[in-house]
Amino acid sequence: MKMNGKTILVTGSTDGVGRYVARRLAEDGARVLIHGRDAERAKVLSDEIAKAGGAAPTFYQADLSSMSGTRALAEALIRDHQRLDVFVSNAGIGSQNDGPQRQVSADGHELRFAVNYLSGFLLVHLLLPLLKSAAPSRIVNVASLGQHPIDFDDVMITQGYSGSRAYAQSKLSQIMFTIDLADELKGAGITVNALHPATYMNTTMVRAGGVTPISTVEQGGAAILRLVEGDDVAGKSGLFFNGMNEARANPQAYDAAARKRLRELSLKLTGLAR
Question: Of residues 117, 167, 200, 254, which has the active-site annotation?
Answer without folding.
Answer: 167
